[in-house]
Amino acid sequence: MNKRRRVYEGKAKTLYEGPEPGTLIQHFKDDATALNGKKHSLIDGKGVLNNRISEYLFLRLGEIGVPTHFIKRLNMREQLIREVEIIPLEVVVRNVAAGSLATRLGLEEGKPLPRSIVEFYYKADALNDPMVSEEHITAFGWATPQEIDEVMSLALRVNDFMVGLFLGIGIRLVDFKVEFGRLYDNELVRVVLADEISPDSCRLWDVATGDKLDKDRFRKDLGGVLEAYQEVARRLGVLTENPRPKGAGPVLVASNGQKPH
What we know:
Layout: E1 6-9, E2 13-17, E3 23-28, E4 31-34, E5 39-42, H1 46-63, E6 70-73, E7 78-82, E8 85-86, E9 89-96, H2 99-105, E10 112-122, E11 131-132, H3 134-139, H4 145-167, E12 171-185, E13 188-194, E14 202-206, H5 216-219, H6 225-236, E15 251-252
Antiparallel strand pairs: 1-2, 2-3, 3-7, 4-5, 5-15, 6-7, 8-12, 9-10, 9-12, 10-11, 12-13, 12-14
Helix pairs in contact: 1-6
């Protein structure tokens, strides 16, 4: 087998050159990171679950007309995606007070927000991904006003769909982070949903119990990280053979990671 050319390696995923021009292979790793790199563990099987969950959500979003980079899942850990130019912003949509929003504004965690709120963070690990305004984004050329409008519109469409989807399986979508990219097709440039959507990038609370079914279980040392991700996958119907990835749970390996917002 020919050695694949690695294009990019992030905290939770690696991108390899795809089989055709304009494509990439996105590989989901088992790494779990939090707290600006103060926590970094391996959770055996997490990458498999995130691959399946993200595939399911991207397929459903594609069905309602949300443009994405997703083409197809290749195997348990990899997806074939379209190559895009990532817009250097983390786009966070919030429905319920939690995380840095609750801390920043002194809000009670779990309190519903008056309306869904969209926030932008500049993708720069060395700067701890600072929160930025539309003025910053346009002034520094990270995105045009038209692209910002498209990003906000798509992010809210994704939110509206996922709120209902998760509520239907007894899960409250508290907030989530997404990324967008520019897809070049000859002279046409489109803004499309990229990266992933998984319990790594969402806050998901059980409606009945309030239990956290996302990466906060890792951030806050609550335990049961893999089991929580498995529960999300089970409710979405993507665990057809009830696979239980083997592993003893988180294993501390190094200090290199990303912060929760």
